[in-house]
Amino acid sequence: MKRLERELKRIKVDLEMREKRRGNISPISYGSFSSEQDCLCTDRGGEYKVLYREYRDALSVCNSTLKELGIRLKIYPCRYVRGWHISKG
Predict the structure, then answer these.
(1) Would 68 be classed as within a structural domain?
(2) What's the distance, Cα to Cα, between the start and end of the chain in Å?
(3) Is the pLDDT of residue 86 over 80?
(4) Residues 84, 72: Cα–Cα separation, whole Å
(5) Structural domains counted in the chain
(6) Which of 2, 20, 54, 68 shows its CA 20 to 30 Å from the CA of 11?
(7) How far is CA 88 from CA 17, 21, 27, 43, 75, in A?
């Protein structure tokens, strides 16, 4: 059950990011995507990390966070699969 919840969370984040990039704010319209390349990395609290498949997607999130919240984030590659994670440190 926890794995299903994790996958649903990843799906939601992925779809929201796609819509944000397209400039859509409300109802999510989406196509198919694959979760086969997702990693199992977790943060200190045990929550699964978001995996950004493209560096530019992670960079976009970092730039938005800096602009909106004044928080500087760091991008680093996932150790296990091809993709990128974001960290505060």
Answers:
(1) yes
(2) 31
(3) yes
(4) 16
(5) 1
(6) 68
(7) 19, 22, 30, 11, 9
